[in-house]
TrEMBL record:
Keywords: ATP-binding, Coiled coil, Cytoplasm, Cytoskeleton, Microtubule, Motor protein, Nucleotide-binding, Phosphoprotein. Residues 41-445 form the Kinesin motor domain. Residues 511-525 have a biased composition (Low complexity). CDD domains: KISc. The keyword Cell membrane does not apply. This is Kinesin-like protein. It comes from Oikopleura dioica.
Amino acid sequence: MATSVIELTKKRLFAQKRNEKVKRRSVLAAGIVDGDTASDALETVLRIRPASSPREVSDGFLQIDSSTHVTIRHPTRPGHGEQFGFNTVVPISTTQREMYSHSGAKLVRAALDGQNCCLFTYGASGSGKTFTMMGGPGEDAGVLARTMESLFAMLDGKMYGSTDIRPTGSSYISRVGITEEKQANAFKDEVLERVNDGECQSGDWNSRRRSSILRLNPELLKPGNAPEPLKEPIDDDSEFLVFASFVEVYNERIHDLLVPVDGSSKRAELRIRQDAKGPFVGGVHQVQISSAHEAYKVIDAGRRNLNVAATRLNEESSRSHCLFIVKIARRLTAHRWGVSQICFCDLAGAERSKNIGGDAKRLGESKTINKSLMQLGIVIEELRNNQKNPGSVAVSFRNSKLTRLMQSYLTGNSKTIIIVTVSQNEKFAEETLNSLKFAASAKTVSLGRDRHGFKDMTKMNMSTIHDTQMNASVMFKTMSGSTIDQYNVTRGNESAYYSRQPVASQEDTISSSETPVSSLTSVPSGPASGSFDEDYRKWTKLDLIDDLIYYRERERELVASVLAMKNAWKDDEKLMNEERMDFDIQKNNWKVDLHNERARLRNEYNSSTEKLFREMKILKKSLKESKEEVARIEAARVESKIEFEEKLKGTDAISTENEELKSELKVLQMKNQNLEAAAKDNDSKLEKQLAETRKLRSSLAQLELKLAEKEDELLTVKTTRMSIDPLDSNDTIDFANFNPPKARSSILPVASSTRTQLNSTADLMSNIMEDMSKTPEALQSFSDKPDSDDKVELYRQIQDLNRQLREAKKEATESAEQKQSNHNEALLHQIKEAANKEAELNSKINALELEKEVLKKRSDRCLLRKEKENLERDNEVLQSKVTKLENLLASGNIENLMAPPSTPSKKFKNTTDNLDPVVEELEKPKRATTRSQRRLSDSTNQVAPKRNLRSRK
Ligand SMILES: Nc1ncnc2c1ncn2[C@@H]1O[C@H](COP(=O)(O)OP(=O)(O)OP(=O)(O)O)[C@@H](O)[C@H]1O
């Protein structure tokens, strides 16, 4: 157990270690560095367009809180304000010059340092994007013009102020509404001012053509003059070449604005290509420029081709996103050039369809514009998410042409400034809120990362190219090296505002320049064709060269990554060796554990076999015992069966007897009831007799009283007589010899006959009454008798009668009582007899019941015996299995079973396979037992009704 826990812990640690190493490698490969911090974020500048009339100003709608924050009154939630932060919030009264210092000025040095820069304006239609970017003449010159001036001032291309080279676009003049004269003067003033400020050299800024090769302005390089030191020291003699291109994205189509628009033919659409440094527009005109003036010429030429249309909001609303790209090539070595660029992007304004008017074309344009702007918003959001979770999603730059072109400026080490323009008018609150939200989101986007959110390890995104590549990728893209001179601005002729010279050969181009461009390129150029097909072929060839360069770059990257992988592989090998060693140690540990486990299992097996033998012996013994028990039970069963059958018969007889007795009992009970009724009758009769007896007694008592009275009378008579008869006075009466009077017979009946007659009380009473009726006459006759003997005799008779009466009474009473008691006794005897018989019968019934129960128990025992038999049978089966096992063990298979497996899994499986049938066999009796039990229970269920039937019988 303990070993397994240790093993598990080891394994877990092992896995953890490996995971950490893998993770570290993948992180290195992905370009995430520990302590990765965001580089400069996108810079946002907010400009609020002043209202053209005081009526447009809504009080408190848009409030500038500080130089970085504004609060807008929420358009849908009245009373609620929402605050937004920017890098800079310029005051409403900000001039174009100030605007430049907050934006374009920051890009020039960065571009010269070799960084790609971008400045784009974002805002609703009519909010002042174009005004900020392009501006107007003189003081109204926009950020683009001022940046160009600054750039060429830095590059010593002092080309300001010439009246014939100032921006002459009619649009500027018409839109700003100032005369050309004024514009020229203002421009001149500004240049002079700059000269005074030391920004550019005084002198012949309009005198001669400049060399195409530019050098840095030594004045500006002087310490103190440079507003910002250059990041990388640049040699004073560094040579620069500047190229300009101008494209527009209109309805998701890219057009070169430097290609003249021929009303009859469709404008050629440019493709987006991609090299190691990111996407670019393939086949676009790149015009070499050497001064701000030349830049203006290019801008002016391009702007004439811009898709501008009137909407309800803006008379000259931009219907396309336009990108003016300035490429700065700096010679790094004799044959290598570093190319950086500044992109000026004037986006078309987002607008609601109701502000456009009914024109379907305008609506379509607006839809595309809004869609691409929405896509830009999505890209910004994705960039934001990606920097939180690098690698979570690849930013969807490809979803629109605009975002695709912006990719280079939103990833890598670019410097990008967004000028957000909003209106002061509350009417455009919704648009303003959307612009502010976009800016707030963009402000949090960190640059210096790739499109997956991983940090871009390259410090600069400047492309380095060879002379030949320069020739191929830059110069040839300029349509065989066009120069600015080929763009002759023809004012007043809007339909053909410039006339492009027939495409010249490289040589022609060189000869036409004061400083030949070919001095930078060593690619021999072919004869000038000027035909579109020729150009197309060249473009295709150049595309192929581009691809080749791209793939070479990719190859280099791959080689580098392969090398890195090889190094990683070496590390891996090291790691693997370590792991292998760990694994070997682990393996040895496992071997030891395995050996121990085998030994343990062997011991377990031996002990279990011994235990099995012991159990077998016990089973044998118990089997023997159970056999004997079975025999005993069998004998008892037979006996009890016979007994049971006999008893069953006896029970039948008893039950019939029982029935008879029951009927007898019923008869007796009826008799008893009759007797009880008779006893009751007798009792009532006895009571009547007793009442009669009581009557007789009372009459007897009366008679006795009368008798006593008569005796008294008699005594008085006697005494009288004795007083009369002297004889009587001397003589005493001998009562012993006194004979009863003869008349007695007339008074009393003969004794014997009388006794018999007195048995009946009624007779007795009638006799007495008869005597009594006779008595007065007798007494009369007696009194009449003079003889004393008669009197004695009478007396005696009376006494005798009295006695007889008493006796009779007694006899009558006794006989009645005797009779009654005898009768009662007889009845009681009969009742007792009946009760005894009933008790006897009940005891017999009870005995039968007991017998029945005993028989029932015996039958149950019989069933148990049967069950036991089944068990015995099972035991026998078990014994046979045990014997089989014994045989198996005896046959030597035990050795095989006990032999330790060579490999743990396989051999132990075999061992268990060998044991499986045995286990199965051992399991069988159990199943048999359950089956026999089931059978037994079935048989019990079947027997029960039979018994019931019998008992019913
Ligand atoms: N800061 C400002 N000061 C004075 N006028 C301005 C300012 N900003 C814009 N305007 C004027 O407002 C009008 C519309 O400006 P602009 O054409 O630059 O808008 P926009 O945002 O480019 O519109 P769209 O997207 O439709 O092209 C122009 O006539 C311009 O002169």
